[in-house]
Amino acid sequence: MESPRYKRVVLKLSGEALREPGSGDNISPQIVQQIADQIVEVKALGIELAIVIGGGNIWRGLAASHRGMNRTTADYMGMLATVINGLALMSALEDRGISVRVQTAIEMHNVAEPFILRRAIRHLELGHIVIFVAGTGNPFFSTDTTAALRANEIGANIILKATKVDGIYDSDPFKNPNAVRFEQITYSEALARRLQVMDSTAFSLCMDNRMPIIVFDMNKPDNIRRALAGESVGTLVIDKSDNA
Questions:
Q1: In contact, 150 and 201? CB cutoff 8 Å
Q2: Which residues does residue 49 pair with via DSSP β-bridges, in sequence order?
Q3: Is 83:104 a contact under the CB 8 Å cutoff?
Q4: In what order do the strands lie in the sheet with 129-133?
Q5: pLDDT at residue number 67
Q6: Helix (H), strand (E), coil (C) string for the chain
Q7: Looking only at Cα atoms, what is the longest distance across the chain?
Q8: What is the pLDDT of residues 91-110, one digit of tens each?
Q9: 45, 228 in Cβ contact below 8 A?
Q10: Is this model's pTM higher than 0.90 or not?
Q11: Domain residues of the chain, as ranges?
């Protein structure tokens, strides 16, 4: 069995990753199962894995606020959507014999554990997958920020940001067929080029703490395992001083 390059990893999944394109379903059981299969394969490498999941397939707080809803209320609704997604992924993983703990930033004792840092770290050390839901528990913060925050809190080695594109480009690849993909880029270069790797709060948190990020295409089977094995998958964002 190949050795993983990283010991402790945060996988950031968007809520949209759970929705089948063109389907009216907010959560596709088939896609959740496919994601769970990839995660099982990765867990077999022996890494400590935490997952942060979004809720955009069910509710987007920012979008709702643009349509007249109070932003704070809309964001709390979005946090609850991430709980639904986290429970769906937990169920699929447990069906595959994987031990999972869901920790929520908004206490709801009948549904999930409250987020307690030391408990989360202990779960990881014991081999459980930890799914962080309800964002940071605060409005005005995205789940990208949650991923950056939790990764730094638990001492993760890297953030894997799953997207619908195979990395970071110098322009939108859906609009520009000549867009160029970066295999590796520094935080400062990404900022100078105004590349939307994460929202500004999340990106600043990663940059300030030198937390590397891999942006990759979740829809390609085996990409998570390949990234963790150190293969060239997607785009690696690192500090200039770490640039090999």
A1: no
A2: 9
A3: yes
A4: 113-114, 100-104, 129-133, 48-53, 8-13, 158-163, 213-217, 235-238, 184-186
A5: 86
A6: CCCCCCCEEEEEECHHHHCCCCCCCCCCHHHHHHHHHHHHHHHCCCCEEEEEECCCCCCCHHHHHHCCCCHHHHHHHHHHHHHHHHHHHHHHHHHCCCCEEEEECCCCCCCCEECCHHHHHHHHHCCCEEEEECCCCCCCCCHHHHHHHHHHHHCCCEEEEEECCCCEECCCCCCCCCCCEECEEEHHHHHHCCCCCCCHHHHHHHHHCCCCEEEEECCCCCHHHHHHCCCCCCEEEECHHHCC
A7: 53
A8: 999 999 999 999 999 999 99
A9: yes
A10: yes
A11: 8-242
Q: Say yes or no to pLDDT of 145 above 80.
A: yes
184-186 and 181-182 beta bridge pairing: unpaired
Strand-pair partners of 9: 49, 158
N-to-C CA span, the chain: 26
Nearest CA to 207 out of 138, 159, 169 is that of 159
Domain 8-242: homologous superfamily in CATH: Acetylglutamate kinase-like (3.40.1160.10)
pLDDT for the residue numbered 165: 87
Determine the Cα–Cα distance for residues 208 and 205; give it in Å rounded to an integer. Answer: 5
Averaged confidence pLDDT in the chain: 91
Instruction: Mention every residue, 6+ apart, whose C-beta is less than 8 A from residue 45.
Output: 1, 2, 3, 4, 225, 228, 229
Instruction: Print burial letters for 80-117: b (CB count within 10 Å at least 16), e (below 16).
Output: bbbbbbbbbbbebbeeeebebbbbbbbeeeeebbebee
Radius of gyration over alpha carbons of the chain, in Å? 17
By CB neighbour count within 10 A (0-12 exposed, 13-18 middle, 19+ buried), where does 51 fall? Answer: buried
Q: So what's the pLDDT on residue 244?
A: 47
**CA quadruple 91, 93, 99, 101: dihedral positive or negative?**
negative
